[in-house]
């Protein structure tokens, strides 16, 4: 009798407090591959891992998409296909996806099916659960389900949305000017203080002693800041002045978040940018120290010798021609 399955992409939940299924039921739904599959190449992997296709038409899914409120226990199935002529034993676990945050990888559990042996030419549908902590903040999380066998590991993405009110909040911190000439850049830190991922855009505005200076127009960054994430970045500023002073304002925006801005100042001398409002005082102090050093050197030499009677004295008379022997 066929096992009833939910429609494609459906999220299965079970009430909290219900005990996890034992390892034996997790290993029962083994589905023989239809037809006679060709033998894999000698150097091919011979197996694959993917979300179990939905029952309606067997539509494949590129990743797991789950949603639930804090405290929910969500369920889905991982399909392991062994197309080889030998049984294969897989180690299964949850993990953080690179760039993810929030610890969602630790919420994934295979229970007693953390190690599964799949017979030759067979597909096994292995259940797993995602337990959302009661104190989890609303927002999106990214994790992965990992299947490993004989030194090879394959990851299947898990997109998880925790229900509740969402907050998009972005701040800019630690703005500083560094480098010189065409390699001058504006360094800064973006901090996601909300509970949803943010795709930021940044711009740089500069003001000099006599008016606006060329800055940087707004542009989209090729990065995403995860909830609670902190990224240290830099914007090139090749049009920075070679001499003088500049006040900069770096502004960051993201969909749903209020604009965030932070400022910095820099004083430019030939060949170097000196950050901070006290840079002119530092340059003045250096000049004063050089002048004091010159005065001390003159003092050590002493005053010129004085001629008795005052004055410089008469110049010596020229000798008559032929006076020398």
Automatic annotation (TrEMBL):
Residues 293-325 are annotated as: Disordered. The keyword Signal applies. Residues 1-41 form the signal peptide. Keywords: Membrane, Signal, Transmembrane, Transmembrane helix. The chain crosses the membrane at residues 272-294. It comes from the Bacteria. This is DUF916 domain-containing protein.
């Amino acid at each position: 009798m066929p096992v009833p399955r939910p429609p494609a992409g459906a999220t299965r939940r079970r009430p909290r407090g219900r005990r996890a299924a034992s390892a034996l039921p997790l290993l029962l739904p083994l589905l023989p591959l239809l037809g006679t599959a060709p033998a894999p190449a000698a150097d091919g992997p011979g197996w694959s891992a993917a979300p179990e296709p939905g029952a309606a038409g067997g539509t494949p899914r590129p990743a797991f998409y789950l949603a639930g409120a804090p405290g929910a226990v969500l369920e889905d199935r991982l399909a392991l296909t062994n197309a080889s002529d030998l049984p294969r034993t897989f180690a299964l676990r949850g993990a953080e996806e690179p760039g993810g945050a929030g610890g969602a990888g630790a919420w994934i559990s295979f229970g007693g099916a953390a190690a599964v042996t799949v017979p030759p030419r067979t597909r096994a549908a292995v259940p797993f659960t995602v337990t959302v902590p009661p104190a989890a903040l609303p927002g999106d999380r990214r994790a992965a389900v990992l299947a490993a066998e004989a030194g090879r590991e394959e990851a299947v993405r898990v997109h998880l949305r925790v229900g509740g009110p969402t907050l998009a909040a972005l701040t800019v911190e630690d703005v500083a000017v560094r480098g010189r000439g065409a390699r001058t850049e504006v360094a800064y830190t973006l901090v996601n203080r909300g509970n949803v991922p943010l795709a930021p855009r940044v711009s740089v505005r500069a003001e000099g002693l006599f008016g606006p200076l060329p800055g940087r127009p707004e542009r989209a960054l090729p990065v995403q800041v995860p909830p609670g994430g902190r990224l240290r970045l830099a914007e090139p500023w090749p049009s920075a002045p070679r001499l003088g002073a500049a006040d900069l304002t770096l502004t960051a925006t993201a969909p749903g978040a209020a604009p965030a801005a932070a400022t910095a100042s820099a004083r430019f001398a030939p060949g170097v940018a000196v950050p901070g409002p006290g840079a002119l005082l530092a340059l003045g102090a250096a000049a004063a120290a050089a002048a004091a050093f010159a005065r001390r050197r003159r003092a050590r030499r002493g005053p010129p010798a004085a001629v008795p009677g005052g004055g410089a004295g008469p110049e010596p008379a020229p000798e008559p021609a032929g006076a020398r022997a």
